[in-house]
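Format notes (please read before filing issues)

Several people have asked whether sequences and structure tokens are stored in separate files. They are not. Every record keeps both together, in the order shown below: the sequence lines, then the token lines. Line labels are part of the format and must not be stripped during preprocessing.
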Amino acid sequence: MRPVWAEVITIGDEILYGQTLDTNTQWMGQRLNEIGVKIIRKVALGDQREEIVKGLDEASQRADIILITGGLGPTKDDITKKTLAEYFDTPLIMNEEILQHITDLFTKRNLKMNALNEAQALVPRDCTVIPNSQGTAPGMWFEHDEKVYVSMPGVPYEMETMMSESIIPKLREVFALPVIYHQMIQTVGIGESWLAEQIEEWEDNLPPHIRLAYLPSFGRVKLRLTAVGENRLQLEEDVAAQVRQLEPIIQKYIYGYGDKTLEEAVGELLNEAEKTLAVAESCTGGFLAHSLTSIPGSSRYFQGGVVAYSNALKTSLLGVLEETLSNH
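Then the structure lines:
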């Protein structure tokens, strides 16, 4: 089964200026992965017709599904809908159902509509309209040259609802989608390059349908195994077999699997050993205690903490020698 690729195009000058954070792509990546669609690229474009057209042309060369967010508002700077109508050579027509939906929204909120609001009910004639239950700008679904193009509002809760209620179910109908299965292995105490060196032979012998990715962060490295196929149960068994081969090589660095945090792993070890913990902190400002107590049930093993920021408190409360403070 061949993979199904998606590209995400985020439109809006505010994204490029750094004034608005693009959380839409992250959310879509997670949801699409669940149904077997892989995002091959994401692109941020300004509110310029030429750039949008160029982005659509390029995306169509790489992806089966082109997902577009942003630029569907009622003001003149929102040009996505008009550009899409020109791109697919179809006129904008008034959709009476969308107009009624917008009218009802304004009536419920006791607001007066103007011509700009009414114009949001104009949609390209040759698209499938996707209702927006959370706002006024409808989504648009185009099919052209065996590609699917979907335009959605940039407002996250509007986009998320539209994707969940309409777009993802429709993608399942249109495409034969593979299964994508991930397993995360959490490690600590070893850097990325040293870890890669230790598991190089194991990595080189992974089967073709399983890929490894290194996801480093401060002090930790996640290893993500991704398997692609048609049968989820078989993929889970294949990945588990590879993990069993890996564990003896780096067992002392593995603290958990999946989404387990280091704080959770520490709490489990303390419970198993029937030990308790107290902390004294300075420059961390209490962050260590915060991290440890972010885990439900941490009161079973965490006794408490002292945040001694001044030298006076360090000597009087914690017994740190003045000589130590002056030297270090």
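For reference, the curators noted about this record: The mean pLDDT is 95. The first helix runs from residue 13 to 16.
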